[in-house]
């Protein structure tokens, strides 16, 4: 038997049903016995929604009013009545089992499942299997319109069924017409059989993605891919959301096993994004209709993504990880902040007998750097939700002398974290070695009130220089050399803002007019004309808004803020900074006390393109916002510039053991605190500023670094 089901919400109707997150307000159904071709009683039930504000389309199409809906029963009561009435009708027809049949998939997948999930009550088993009448009709009549273009009316017209929609109540006509269509499909000329129902997964299956495991072992062939038509990117997720929370957001849609990959930032923390892979493109297209639906109080943005992006996030694994994740249906908890000396016994003792780990020591996975050093992270397997909840209660309890953070995790996060640590680059990266010292052409940072700059606001966080140049189009030729400046937030990540120096105020005005609210990667970007002074305030830490300009903060009272307009000398990086990033061939010579008094300050020059493309500015520059294309160039004293033009460089490493590196310093640490820390040890007292004496300006730019290198 089939139960023909039709429904409507308080919002959109037809192809957009469920896309606006509005509640169900109407259910109409009728039982059909496929063998005897008899039908049961037709039932129509109004549903009382929490929000009775009906859209104009709903009022016009359905004829329903808030007053009438206010007297109806809530959804949970209506579904109980549905089960009782269907059972009663089946008994009259002498049948015991049934399958739902609906007009398309939207009512089941996009309305009933999401709404009941949000209201925290379970649907009966019958709602996890149903027939899509449109697909069955197209199978029976291949010459009919495509499935996506089918409606109840077009199917009836194809069969020549002459029912009048105006003669019946809304919902009643639809169900009666669907029953007539089914009987036509069962006629002797067609003899259609309903054999392959659509299914809705009861729960999301965790575990490693099999395609991702295959990709890891065969990655050298570059032949394994994930279908890009099945992947979406969800943005704006609460940072504590797990893969199960994301699966619940997409309730009603079938996510592939291990198909939720939480994205992490460079510190291994969740960044509020996830990539989700569905079983087919049809499910992906339905997921895109949930753009800006809500998870709690937050709306979630849903965009298309590629299979390549998914593999980058979820495709990394190793034999150790594969073995760890081979146990099915386990709850994964991530521990962060473990002492570096912590052992498996320490972790098991910390968790205690109330939350036993699956497999004991085999249920623990410590994350390590490539050289084997522990990162302080670990993943733990639990066999059930109860044990995992007991473990989460130990959040921020003490192990040794450290408090431990515990979070829900996913198989994809395990793979991603371990892969990122395994493939992590050296802590202090190096730049390509130029053949000879190069002095790039000098360029200036715009100053003054001339409005020859433009500000781009609302850039995608993944946008780079190339994306901006493509966005500018023909106006790219009017940009000054080194004139694109990306603004970072206080975490060192793109803020969505950028400044561009144009060759004239007229060019800036034309760009602002032409490109304002133009699209870049599914986002519109605002473009405003501004002055060099306004740009400098933002690039150097200030703020620019409707209230005016707020100057950049000076974090160290003992140091004067730099004269921002003075960045007009040749593009030079002091050798103190160069020592952090240069390969051995470019490190300056070790100076003896006799030579240091007479030798001119040493400077090292980088080609402009190297500084722009490779400089890791977050290691020692001021807290963002700053500009990646400008912080790589620090003004040196005029004498140093002159000396560099004639000096002969003899690159030699400092004496072995003469260099130490300090990590984890407070951000407000100054030179005095560092000297005090090393009190009692022999250091070069007239050389503590580094390999050269710094000007006040350069010292200000280098204030409050995260790490220092000392002689």
Automatic annotation (TrEMBL):
<comment type="similarity">
    <text>Belongs to the ESRP family.</text>
</comment>
<keyword id="KW-0677">Repeat</keyword>
<dbReference type="GO" id="GO:0006397">
    <property type="term" value="P:mRNA processing"/>
</dbReference>
<dbReference type="InterPro" id="IPR012337">
    <property type="entry name" value="RNaseH-like_sf"/>
</dbReference>
<dbReference type="InterPro" id="IPR012677">
    <property type="entry name" value="Nucleotide-bd_a/b_plait_sf"/>
</dbReference>
<dbReference type="InterPro" id="IPR035979">
    <property type="entry name" value="RBD_domain_sf"/>
</dbReference>
<dbReference type="InterPro" id="IPR036397">
    <property type="entry name" value="RNaseH_sf"/>
</dbReference>
<protein>
    <recommendedName>
        <fullName>Epithelial splicing regulatory protein 2</fullName>
    </recommendedName>
</protein>
<dbReference type="InterPro" id="IPR050666">
    <property type="entry name" value="ESRP"/>
</dbReference>
<dbReference type="GO" id="GO:0008380">
    <property type="term" value="P:RNA splicing"/>
</dbReference>
<feature type="domain" description="RRM">
    <location>
        <begin position="331"/>
        <end position="411"/>
    </location>
</feature>
<keyword id="KW-0508">mRNA splicing</keyword>
<dbReference type="GO" id="GO:0005634">
    <property type="term" value="C:nucleus"/>
</dbReference>
<dbReference type="InterPro" id="IPR000504">
    <property type="entry name" value="RRM_dom"/>
</dbReference>
<keyword id="KW-0694">RNA-binding</keyword>
<keyword id="KW-0539">Nucleus</keyword>
<dbReference type="GO" id="GO:0003723">
    <property type="term" value="F:RNA binding"/>
</dbReference>
<keyword id="KW-0507">mRNA processing</keyword>
């Amino acid at each position: 038997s089939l139960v023909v089901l039709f429904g409507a919400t308080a919002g959109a109707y037809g192809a957009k049903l469920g896309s606006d997150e509005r509640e169900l307000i109407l259910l109409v159904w009728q039982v059909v016995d496929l063998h005897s071709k008899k039908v049961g009683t037709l039932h129509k039930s109004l549903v009382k929604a929490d929000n009775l504000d009906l859209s104009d389309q709903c009022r016009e199409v359905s004829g329903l009013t808030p007053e009438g809906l206010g007297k109806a029963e809530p959804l949970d009561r209506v579904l109980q009545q549905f089960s009782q009435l269907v059972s009663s009708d089946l008994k009259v027809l002498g049948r015991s089992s049934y399958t739902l049949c609906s007009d398309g998939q939207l009512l089941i997948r996009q309305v009933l499942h999401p709404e009941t999930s949000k209201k925290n009550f379970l649907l009966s088993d019958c709602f996890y299997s149903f027939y899509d009448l449109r697909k069955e009709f197209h199978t029976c009549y291949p010459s009919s319109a495509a499935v996506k273009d089918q409606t109840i009316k077009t199917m009836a017209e194809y069969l020549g069924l002459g029912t009048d929609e105006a003669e019946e109540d809304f919902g009643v006509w639809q169900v009666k017409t669907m029953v007539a269509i089914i009987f036509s499909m069962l006629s002797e000329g067609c003899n259609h059989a309903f054999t392959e129902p659509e299914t809705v997964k009861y729960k999301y299956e965790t575990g490693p993605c099999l395609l991702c495991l295959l990709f890891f072992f065969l990655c050298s062939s570059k032949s394994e891919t994930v279908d890009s038509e099945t992947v979406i990117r969800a943005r704006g997720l609460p940072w504590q959301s797990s893969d199960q929370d994301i699966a619940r957001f997409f309730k009603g849609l079938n996510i592939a096993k291990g198909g939720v990959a939480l994205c992490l930032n460079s510190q291994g923390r969740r960044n509020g994004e996830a990539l989700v892979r569905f079983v087919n493109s049809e499910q992906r297209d339905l997921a895109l209709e949930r753009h800006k639906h809500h998870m709690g109080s937050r709306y979630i943005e849903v965009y298309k993504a590629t299979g390549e992006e998914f593999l980058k996030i979820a495709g990394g694994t190793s034999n150790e990880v594969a073995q760890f994740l081979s146990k099915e249906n386990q709850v994964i908890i991530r521990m962060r902040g473990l002492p570096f000396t912590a052992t498996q016994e320490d972790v098991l003792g910390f968790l205690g007998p109330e939350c036993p780990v699956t497999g004991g020591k085999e249920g623990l996975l410590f994350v390590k750097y490539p050289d084997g050093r522990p990162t302080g992270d670990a993943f733990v397997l639990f066999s059930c939700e109860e044990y995992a909840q007991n473990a989460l209660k130990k959040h921020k309890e003490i192990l040794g002398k450290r408090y431990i953070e515990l979070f829900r995790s996913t198989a994809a996060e395990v793979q991603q974290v371990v892969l990122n640590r395994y493939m992590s680059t050296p802590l202090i990266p190096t730049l390509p070695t130029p053949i000879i010292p190069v002095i790039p052409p000098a360029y200036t940072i715009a100053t003054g009130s001339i409005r020859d700059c433009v500000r781009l606001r609302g850039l995608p966080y993944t946008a780079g220089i190339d994306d901006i140049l493509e966005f500018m189009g023909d106006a790219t030729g009017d940009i000054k050399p080194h004139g694109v400046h990306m603004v970072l937030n206080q975490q060192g990540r793109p803020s969505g803002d950028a400044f561009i120096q144009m060759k004239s105020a007229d060019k800036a005005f034309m760009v602002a007019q032409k490109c304002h609210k133009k699209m870049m990667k599914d986002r519109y970007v605002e473009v405003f004309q501004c002055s060099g002074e306004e740009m400098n305030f933002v690039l150097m830490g200030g703020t620019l808004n409707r209230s005016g300009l707020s100057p950049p903060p000076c974090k160290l009272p003992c140091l004067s803020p730099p004269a921002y307009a003075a960045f007009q000398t040749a593009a030079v990086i002091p050798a103190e900074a160069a020592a952090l990033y240069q390969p051995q061939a470019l490190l300056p010579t070790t100076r003896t006390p006799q030579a240091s008094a007479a030798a001119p300050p040493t400077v090292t020059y980088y080609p402009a393109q190297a500084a722009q493309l490779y400089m890791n500015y977050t290691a020692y520059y001021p807290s963002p916002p700053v500009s990646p294309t400008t912080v790589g160039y620090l003004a040196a004293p005029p004498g140093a510039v002159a000396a560099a033009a004639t000096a002969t460089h003899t690159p030699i490493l400092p004496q072995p053991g003469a260099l130490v590196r300090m990590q984890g310093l407070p951000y407000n640490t100054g030179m005095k605190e560092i000297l005090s820390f090393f009190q009692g040890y022999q250091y070069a007292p007239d050389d503590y500023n580094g390999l050269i004496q710094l000007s006040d300006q350069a010292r200000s730019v280098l204030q409050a670094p995260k790490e220092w290198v000392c002689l």
